[in-house]
Specification:
The structure holds two protein chains of two kinds. Chain A is of the alpha/beta class. Helix content of chain A is 52%, strand content 17%. Chain A has five helices and five strands. By secondary structure, chain B is mostly beta strands. Helices cover 8% and strands 44% of the residues of chain B. Chain B has helices spanning 2-17, 30-35, 153-156, 169-175, 432-435, and strands at 46-58, 82-98, 101-111, 126-134, 141-148, 210-221, 226-235, 250-262, 269-284, 295-310, 313-323, 356-367, 373-384, 392-406, 409-421, 441-450. The chains are: A alpha/beta, B mainly beta.
Chain lengths: 151, 451
């Protein structure tokens, strides 16, 4: 009796991830003419790295301009805290998304592990796009010509 | 002398305000800064601390018998009129108990320096802060443990960003609490240098503006850049002592409204209005007899003030008053002076346990544009035993300068011009025999903050 439920659950998760992936693709399409593509990795516990990665994204946009630069910040491991709903950098993330088109990817594997630890899923920033794996997402972007930077 | 101090203060303020305004400045929400961590962005363990090393030289005169009182000597040792000292050396940690859960944070700090916290108990180290904050209820954070109590700006603010070396008289004498000894303790009279006996008659650490208890607090962001803060704390009323020495508890209340201009942290720009109160009782044996017969005395403190910091200009003013437990100097642990010594119910008054006091301070700072220098000036007034025959009035004008090597390391220079008198006594008579000689003091202090 359990197998059908598992299958339904799998279908739902797959559908959600596919939806997120398609949304991500749409966002990338908006940057189709960007000449400078960066993927920024945030995976550290150190809170100062959160500020640093946001500063780097802002500086890239300031230098090249939102039309010519494409930046995606991929958060996984302890670095996923950057994309928690409660994070104090929420306003800065809003600004980078709304003013510069910076994208934020949240590692699904990390969310799963944190869910087990917390006993409930962490509340995520609404700008975060959940991807199956942070490192997988970085590989995908690297294959597309994005420059990986780990501030 | 009082008029000349006021005149000098007015002139300096005019000079300061006539200069152009630029650069950084600060006002701060101390409740949030000291009691919380940035959500989702704090490490489990953030080691931090600071060191303050200083030299002070006091030019006060001895009395007619060539003897001194504590106000004319350098604390906390009170053995001489000039001294090098490492007055603060604090090491601590703060952060979130678990990185994934920003709703619980902690604050731990210990003092290793030589000051009123460590000297009275001859301790080489003493815990000053150990608290846990729960942020689960929206609008009502809960902090438990030992931490700074809601109170005056001078006491509540972080000491490592304090812009002067010594406290004002009203803060040092009325707010920095000295707790009664377990048994009646006689006064320590004026002494020659080097004093034969320890001038500090109190056996326990100063309160350090801290208590053990539980506090509910929060800061709300309002429209147009305004913030509103509140705090209500229920504590032992027994300072840095972990436990309580009686069953009475202290109630601390605090309200503030601040217009935030820019920045963050202890030096953010803003304009803050605040008011506070502290209400409790102390139990002490103040009667000079062979019987241990402690009684309860009220201790009330309240105040209100204003702080403005913007574009390199800082201005602060605060009025404070107190009823009960008015200290008469660290050499008078029975809280009494004069003929009513050892008799709290004397109709002649002059016993601090049932007396009143009030005071105020105004101060300003100006960061000189394109330099690392800041100029500071402060005037403070304290009326001890207000309305009593033995009332004593203290005025102090402090001229200061600070040089910032960088935002975390600075050197401060202070020159204090003090005047004290008992207005109901002739010059040289009664308390004036020792108050007349209180004069100027020069201090220099280096502060290094690490984190």
């Amino acid at each position: 009796m359990k197998k059908p439920y598992l299958s339904i659950g799998t279908v739902i998760v797959t559908a959600v991830l596919t939806l997120f992936a398609s949304m991500s693709t749409l966002a990338e399409d908006e940057k189709a003419f960007a000449e400078h593509k960066f993927v920024l990795q945030i995976s550290d516990m150190d809170a100062a790295k959160q500020t640093l990665v946001l500063n780097v994204a802002a500086n890239i946009m300031k230098h090249y301009g939102p039309d010519k630069a494409d930046v995606e910040i991929v958060a996984f491991g302890p670095g996923l805290r950057l994309l928690f709903e409660e994070n104090v950098n929420g306003n800065r993330i809003d600004g980078l998304v709304n003013n510069s088109g910076v994208r934020f990817a949240a590692c699904g594997n990390t969310i799963t592990k944190m869910t087990k630890t917390l006993g409930h899923p962490p509340a995520m920033n609404s700008h975060a796009t959940v991807v199956p794996g942070g490192i997988i997402r970085i590989k995908e972007l690297a294959d597309q010509g994005y420059l990986l930077v780990r501030p | 002398m009082k008029h000349s101090l006021a005149a000098r203060l007015g002139g300096l303020i005019l000079c300061a305000t006539s200069l152009s305004f630029t650069n950084i400045a600060s006002a701060a929400d101390w409740l949030t800064l000291q009691g919380t961590e940035p959500a989702g962005a704090s490490n489990p363990v953030n080691i931090w601390g600071f060191i303050q090393a200083q030299y002070q030289d006091d030019n006060s005169d001895a009395n007619a018998a060539d003897q001194y009182v504590p106000a004319k000597l350098i604390g906390p040792d009170l053995d001489s009129q000039s001294q090098f000292n490492v007055n603060r050396a604090r090491l601590g940690a703060r952060g979130v108990a678990m990185p994934l859960d920003s709703q619980i944070n902690y604050f731990l700090l210990a003092e290793f320096g030589n000051n009123g916290i460590t000297d009275p108990e001859n301790s080489s180290a003493k815990l000053t802060d150990a608290s846990i904050t729960f942020n689960h209820v929206k609008g009502a954070r809960v902090r438990v443990g030992m931490f700074k109590t809601p109170g005056s700006e001078e006491g509540l603010q972080a000491i490592h960003v304090f812009d002067y070396i010594n406290f004002t008289n009203v803060t040092n004498q009325m707010m920095l609490e000295r707790f009664p000894n377990r048994r009646y303790t006689p006064n320590v009279g004026p002494q020659t240098i080097t004093p034969e006996n320890d001038f500090n008659g109190f056996e326990e650490s100063v309160g350090a503006f801290r208590d053990v208890g539980v506090q509910v607090f929060n800061t709300f962001k309002l429209d147009n850049g305004w913030e509103a803060s509140y705090a209500a704390m229920f504590g032992n009323g027994n300072g840095l002592n972990f436990g309580d020495n009686d069953s009475n508890k202290e109630l601390y209340l605090y309200l503030a409204a601040e217009k935030v201009f820019s920045g963050k942290g202890p030096r953010r720009s803003g304009m803050k209005f605040f008011a506070w109160s502290q209400d409790g009782k102390r139990t002490a044996d103040f009667t000079n007899d062979a019987t241990h017969n402690p009684e309860e005395y009220d201790r009330e403190r309240r105040g209100a003030g204003f702080k403005y910091l913007n574009k390199g200009l800082r201005f602060t003013a605060e009025y404070l008053e107190g009823e009960g437990m008015i200290m008469q100097g660290v050499h008078n642990p029975s809280f009494g002076i004069g003929p009513c010594q050892g008799n709290p119910t004397s109709t002649a008054g002059c016993h601090g346990a049932e007396a009143e006091a009030k005071g105020y301070y105004v101060e300003g700072g100006y960061r000189i544009p394109s330099t690392n220098w800041e100029l500071d000036v402060r005037f403070d007034n304290y009326q001890r035993l207000d309305g009593d025959q033995f009332e004593a009035e203290y005025d102090k004008l402090t001229l200061g300068a600070q040089y910032f090597f960088n935002p975390r390391v600075r050197v401060a220079f202070n020159y204090e011009m003090s005047d004290a008198e008992a207005p109901n006594f002739a010059k040289g008579a009664g308390p004036n025999a020792n108050l007349d000689g209180i004069e100027d003091r020069f201090s220099v202090q280096v502060t290094a903050i690490f984190k």
